[in-house]
């Protein structure tokens, strides 16, 4: 660190900050009166307050662009975790909402920082900054000083909704279902238009033909099917989240429409969020962040550049928060629907939270994605200013002035053109087909469609069974599982001892209760016909999640459990748990013989594998798609095996089914999403793993230590 010297007393200090502390503590006694007044004036000029910067960038990653902006504007480097911008994920502390890699560009982003006041006009200051920023791929659009209550504004957390765009070459929509029309003829059917203009004739036609209007209307319906839906709600349904929304709307109605004395309630339409777990590579349905609102997807503009015949569609998406990868996957599903590669009921399958399997969706190339505006509706009223670039007369301050709008429009057009050029850089084939589109279609979309149609057929069978069978949850699919009469009951010799111990533990009545955290990823079973409203099986995943999370009494009663047939009948751990102060699993003392036999089984199944520290023992448990908490250590994979007489119950890892009945399978439980298929019969499973904090700890050694403590020296049991 560079040292500094006080000009008054000549004393040397390790930094400028140390000099400032010295002058503050001594009230500048070592300086002359004129020097001290100059020092105070300098401090006044350096007094910083919260300022919002509206800017865009292209060809840069979000944090990199923000750092370069602040370096030029503030004259100093800023650490990434100190940057407060609208598309960051620092405040939420989860990678599930981080900005997509490879985004084509950003039209506008808001950054909150502290800057000194400027004496020159804001427009002049912005123009001066842009002379340095624009060569770096950054463009400053606006500046607004937050006054009064604005000091607590957070550019990331306080966003009420966002808008993103996708620049789509029309090549992606030209396919075999476009009859009697060449590629160029198909391109010519769409005249240009933008957000602020009428249709523009660049292809000899001012308005689309009737056939084109019908085609565009069909696309619109497919886009709408992917958005948040308004649904009718029966007031008697057992869905606490829906009942809460219904009560809020009921209180706002006129008294004549409110609940009558006899208790009857009118049916209500509700705007219900959807779970977008299938539209992101790492989020699960039971996670709250998957429960999102996407209000609108629509065709915003058709644009051609420099007289090109090939048009680009600007598709606009608006929502409360976009998950990592969500936008590109929404576009991918839309293209599959538009090209007729999957049926429309695929949308129902993707959003059905009761369906126990993941259906990963195809991600369109990220180069077409453009981040749009972030809106701060709640804060605009507080600070009396427009905080997004738009024409509005509600407030006189903010980013609604002509110069800001002009800069915004300039940068928006520039980003769109750059993204369009990026699409074209790969060239075309001999038939004039865009190579970027052909490669994505052949390597991503078409292979996905083949798998998706198989998964859709399985979903239809599951859905049909759920309509026929009156029982709930996993029992709905019992008709789809092979009969137990077809299952070979023979137990391989190596598994006999462990299975005997498992059955004895099951019959003992001492099987530990399932923790609330583990219940959150389990599928509940049959409903007790004598259950009260308080015990009612949750109809929605949100209710099930909340009931499991808040249940602190009878830990295994978050659902009404039933033995077998996929009921979440119990799960506990044995072995070591991380941390010196961590309470070790009570299964160690309850079932020492089972613990020892299970750790010995791992050594027989995988003699070359480093022994694990911990085992999860599951009885008749069907798990939702999830990843294991914490992080693996000691080995990078988990080892699982199934035991018992059951049918179905395969392990699915990232969409790939694996038969684990008396067959050990390794997988990365911390990074790969995995779940259990429905099953019939008696199903146990053992999962060996080593959590972070248990490096070098072997569960088999704990068994030996326990044996020594019990004076059980030298006794060796075999599994055969």
UniProtKB/TrEMBL annotation:
<dbReference type="InterPro" id="IPR020095">
    <property type="entry name" value="PsdUridine_synth_TruA_C"/>
</dbReference>
<dbReference type="GO" id="GO:0009982">
    <property type="term" value="F:pseudouridine synthase activity"/>
</dbReference>
<protein>
    <submittedName>
        <fullName>Uncharacterized protein</fullName>
    </submittedName>
</protein>
<dbReference type="InterPro" id="IPR020103">
    <property type="entry name" value="PsdUridine_synth_cat_dom_sf"/>
</dbReference>
<feature type="compositionally biased region" description="Basic and acidic residues">
    <location>
        <begin position="238"/>
        <end position="251"/>
    </location>
</feature>
<dbReference type="GO" id="GO:1990481">
    <property type="term" value="P:mRNA pseudouridine synthesis"/>
</dbReference>
<feature type="region of interest" description="Disordered">
    <location>
        <begin position="231"/>
        <end position="271"/>
    </location>
</feature>
<dbReference type="GO" id="GO:0031119">
    <property type="term" value="P:tRNA pseudouridine synthesis"/>
</dbReference>
<feature type="compositionally biased region" description="Basic residues">
    <location>
        <begin position="252"/>
        <end position="271"/>
    </location>
</feature>
<dbReference type="GO" id="GO:0003723">
    <property type="term" value="F:RNA binding"/>
</dbReference>
<dbReference type="GO" id="GO:0005634">
    <property type="term" value="C:nucleus"/>
</dbReference>
<dbReference type="InterPro" id="IPR001406">
    <property type="entry name" value="PsdUridine_synth_TruA"/>
</dbReference>
């Amino acid at each position: 660190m560079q040292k500094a010297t006080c000009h008054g007393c000549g004393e040397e200090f390790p930094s400028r900050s140390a000099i400032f502390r010295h002058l503050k503590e001594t009230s500048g006694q070592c300086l002359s009166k004129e020097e001290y007044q100059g020092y105070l004036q300098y401090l006044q000029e350096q007094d910083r307050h919260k300022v919002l910067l509206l800017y865009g960038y292209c060809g840069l990653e979000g944090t990199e662009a923000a750092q370069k902006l602040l370096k030029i504007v503030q004259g100093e480097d800023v650490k990434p975790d100190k940057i407060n911008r609208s598309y960051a994920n620092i405040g939420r502390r989860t990678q599930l909402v981080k900005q997509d890699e490879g985004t084509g560009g950003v039209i506008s982003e808001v950054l909150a920082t502290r800057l000194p006041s400027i004496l020159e006009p804001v427009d002049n200051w912005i123009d001066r900054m842009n002379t340095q920023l624009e060569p770096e791929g950054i463009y400053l659009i606006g500046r607004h000083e937050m006054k009064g209550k604005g000091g607590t504004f957070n550019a990331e957390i306080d966003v009420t909704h966002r808008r993103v765009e996708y620049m789509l070459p029309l090549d992606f929509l030209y396919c075999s279902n476009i009859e009697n029309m060449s590629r160029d003829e198909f391109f010519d059917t769409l005249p240009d238009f933008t957000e602020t203009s009428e249709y523009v004739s660049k292809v000899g036609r001012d308005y689309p033909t009737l056939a084109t209007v019908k085609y565009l209307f069909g696309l619109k319906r497919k886009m709408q099917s992917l958005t948040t839906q308004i649904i009718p709600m029966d007031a008697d349904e057992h869905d606490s989240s829906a009942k809460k929304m219904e009560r809020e709307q009921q209180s706002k109605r006129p008294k004549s429409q409110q609940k009558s004395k006899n208790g009857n309630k009118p049916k209500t339409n509700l705007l219900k969020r959807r779970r977008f777990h299938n539209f992101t590579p790492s989020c699960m349905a039971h996670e709250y962040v998957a429960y999102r609102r996407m209000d609108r997807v629509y065709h915003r503009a058709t644009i051609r550049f420099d007289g090109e015949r090939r048009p680009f569609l600007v598709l606009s998406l608006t929502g409360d928060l976009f998950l990592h990868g969500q936008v590109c996957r929404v576009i991918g599903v839309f293209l599959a629907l538009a090209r007729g590669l999957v049926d429309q009921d695929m949308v129902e399958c993707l959003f059905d939270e009761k369906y126990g399997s993941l259906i990963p969706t195809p991600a369109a190339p990220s180069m077409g994605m453009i981040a749009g505006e972030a809106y701060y509706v709640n804060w605009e009223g507080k600070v009396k200013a427009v905080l997004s670039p738009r024409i509005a007369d509600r407030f006189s301050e903010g980013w609604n002035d002509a110069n800001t709008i002009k800069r915004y429009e300039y940068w928006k057009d520039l980003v769109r053109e750059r993204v369009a050029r990026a699409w074209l850089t790969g060239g075309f084939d001999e038939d004039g087909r865009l190579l970027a589109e052909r490669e994505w279609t052949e390597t991503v979309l078409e292979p996905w469609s083949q798998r998706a149609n198989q998964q859709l057929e399985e979903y239809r069978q599951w859905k049909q069974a759920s309509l026929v069978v009156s029982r709930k949850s996993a029992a709905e699919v019992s008709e789809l599982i092979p009969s137990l009469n077809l299952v070979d009951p023979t137990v391989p010799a190596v598994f006999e001892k462990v299975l005997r111990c498992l059955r004895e533990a099951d019959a003992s009545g001492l099987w530990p209760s399932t923790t609330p955290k583990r219940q959150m990823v389990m599928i509940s079973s049959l409903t007790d016909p004598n259950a009260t409203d308080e015990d009612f099986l949750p109809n929605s995943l949100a209710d099930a999640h909340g009931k499991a999370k808040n249940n602190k009494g009878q830990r295994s009663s978050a659902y009404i459990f039933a033995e077998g047939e996929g009921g979440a009948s119990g799960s506990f751990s044995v072995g070591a748990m991380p941390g010196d102060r961590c309470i070790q699993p009570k299964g160690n003392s309850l079932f020492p013989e089972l613990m020892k036999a299970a750790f010995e089984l791992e050594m027989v199944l995988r003699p070359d594998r480093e022994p694990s520290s911990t085992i999860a023992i599951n009885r008749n448990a069907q798990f939702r798609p999830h990843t294991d908490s914490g992080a693996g250590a000691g080995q990078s994979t988990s080892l699982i095996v199934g035991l018992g007489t059951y049918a179905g119950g395969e392990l699915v890892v990232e969409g790939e089914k694996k038969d684990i009945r008396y067959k050990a399978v390794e997988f990365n439980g911390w990074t790969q999403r995995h779940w259990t298929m429905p099953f019939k019969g008696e199903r146990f499973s053992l999962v060996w793993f080593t959590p972070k904090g248990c490096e070098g700890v072997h569960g088999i050694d704990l068994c030996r230590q326990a044996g020594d403590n019990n004076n059980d020296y030298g006794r060796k049991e075999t599994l055969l």
